[in-house]
User: Fold these one by one.
Assistant:
Number 1:
Amino acid sequence: MNELNEFSGIIRRCVDDYSMIEENDSIAVGVSGGKDSLLLLCTLKHLQGYYPRKFHLEAVTLDLGFEGMDFSPISRLCQELEVPYTIIKTDIKEIVFDARKESNPCSLCSKMRRGALNNAIKAKGISKLALGHHFDDVVETFLMSLFYEGRINCFKPMTWLSRAEVWQIRPMIYVDEQRIAALADKLKLPIVHNPCPQDKSSKRYEIKQLIKTLQVDYPDIKSKIFGSLQRLPLEGWGLREGKE
């Protein structure tokens, strides 16, 4: 499909800009069931067919313990893609929402999910975890850090986790959420609904609404924020000479 070819080209540019994939890498995609991670999986599978560096690809899903989540459509997709697929059951929902009753559960949930994913792929001998963060996530995370923590900070395109001995890579940071949603719909990807009670009440959701308001008067505000991270550059965001 032409749309996936074009999309893969953007992902490849990001991968090359930040040297995300090396020869004979083993990469696991953290598949939550949402549009971002599913499209990332399909795109990396497509990229695997022509990328000059060979790499192994797998998919890993964390079952957080929410009722009614059926991952069988993802399993079927992985069979079609010929990508090994693993579902890991956890008690994260029980710990975060039932036992601890966190008032701001997103931070703890995120840390626990990352820890569980890192441990799972390390046990498989996989050294890189591909995450579905995109262009909008970058801008939102930067503003969340600025507004709620008083820091100029954001996650990096590539992050080395020394304790877990795992690289986190984010190949979709050049693509905005709207484009991802449109392509995921066109490809009819088997999206699994997220029943998390914080889905529409988190700090990130507040920032999304703020950005929409600002875009009325400053339509290119997201591009300017993203560009500033690369031009400053924020740690880990600098492009190699000649890549700007």
Number 2:
Amino acid sequence: MNGQGDGTVTTSTRRGFATLAVGAASLLATWPTAARWDDTVRYPDPAFEILDPSFARYRLDAGGVERLWTGARWSEGPVWMADQRCLIWSDIPNDRTLRWHETTGMVDESRKPAGYPNGHTRDRQGRLLTCEHGGRRVTRLEPDGNTTVIADRYDGKRLNSPNDIVCKSDGSIWFTDPPFGILGNYEGDAAPQDLPTDTKSL
């Protein structure tokens, strides 16, 4: 699933990280321009183009590209909440987290303000993990609704702006920390970069 730069949420993958990004980019690389949001007329959906044959086994031939909603300024970080039957994703410049409900097809704001959120994932206990540009931190949403800060510093220095995140099978949390959220005031707050850009783990 993916959030496009025009605020559209689709069932594709764009900017991932680590090994997830490599597979996703190869599998979902090119979109037809003329009928981009038309209903799928045949299967496998021609909107999916496989550039590397080794990823052919990951395509669901009975699946199609479907537009769920449009209206965000810039969507990122979708995560599927199967137990709640909803999709959560970020609208970074509008400082909010949005939620699409499978049962109704409706979209509402699940958090606003939300710390200019970017990437989301779930940990091994099903809790929502969020990369926040505004707070320059990684947070965890607890079952009672409270927020726990997982990381906001490394070697005594503030994180830049955590961006993409994944929870490994052993429970460790991996995230990227580029400077995008501190380069200006569009998707966070302008600030000096304290750390080199790299991937960090908890």
